Amino acid sequence: MTPSQQQIMGPKQGFKARNDLHIVRKLWHMGTGLSGLGVYLMFGFEKREMATILLGLSAAAFIVELARLNFQKVNNIVMILMGPFMRESERDGLSGFPFYALGAGLSLFFFSEKIAILSILFLIFSDPISSFFGVLLGREKILPNKSLQGSLAGFITCYLVTLFYLNAYEQSSIQALAFALFAGLIGSVSELLSIFVDDNLTIPVFSGFGLTILNEIFVIF
């Protein structure tokens, strides 16, 4: 590693370079998620129906992923269409999209609608924002490729998303504020669990599970 590369990486090894902010991919991540939620809410799909669509989309996406990884011509076509929105590591490995659809689909399938939508909002906003601040400002390493700064950004994002979400349901009590604080913690922890599985899967599924337990305590929804 050259001195200039070491300067980019910072004092801790294992973090991504500053040029890996990949703003276009993060905007795509948020845009596709919000578009999907918009379609679900505007066109009146049933929760199980939308879950089935997403799970089917995930299965199809996994098939395409396996095809492109085994056939160069298929990979070339996918790279033309999706290359600008993919991480460098995804060009020779599975991309995040199948996990994105799988995580959202499982959340809608297993959890109540309000909990599922909130957990998907965590995925839409917390994942790219925590990654952005982790790459830009990350110094203290708490897990492989995870920084304290990125996790804090994820916590704040999930906390604020929960506050706005509860406000839409006219929930603005001290109880709702406490719920939002714990929800922020749940969202940030679910992102940290991505050291084992893709965060597009861990965030909505583990957040949905945690929020369901939290709602049993606070009875917000």
Protein architecture, described:
The chain has 221 residues and is mainly α. It has one domain. It has helices spanning 3-9, 23-42, 47-70, 72-82, 97-110, 113-137, 148-168, 174-192, 199-218; strands spanning 141-143, 146-147. The chain has a two-stranded antiparallel sheet with strand order 1-2. Helix 5 (97-110) runs antiparallel to helix 6 and helix 6 (113-137) packs antiparallel against helix 7 (148-168). The chain starts with a helix and ends with a helix. Mean pLDDT is 85; it is low at 1-19.
Output the helix-strand order: HHHHHHEEHHH
Number of domains in the coordinates? 1
Let me know the largest β-sheet: 2 strands, antiparallel
Q: Runs with pLDDT <50, length 5+?
A: 1-19
Q: What keyword list fits this structure?
A:
single chain; mainly alpha; two-stranded antiparallel ribbon; 9 helices
Summarize the topology.
Layout: H1 3-9, H2 23-42, H3 47-70, H4 72-82, H5 97-110, H6 113-137, E1 141-143, E2 146-147, H7 148-168, H8 174-192, H9 199-218
Antiparallel strand pairs: 1-2
Summarize the structure.
The chain is 73% helix and 2% strand. With 221 residues, the protein is an all-alpha fold.
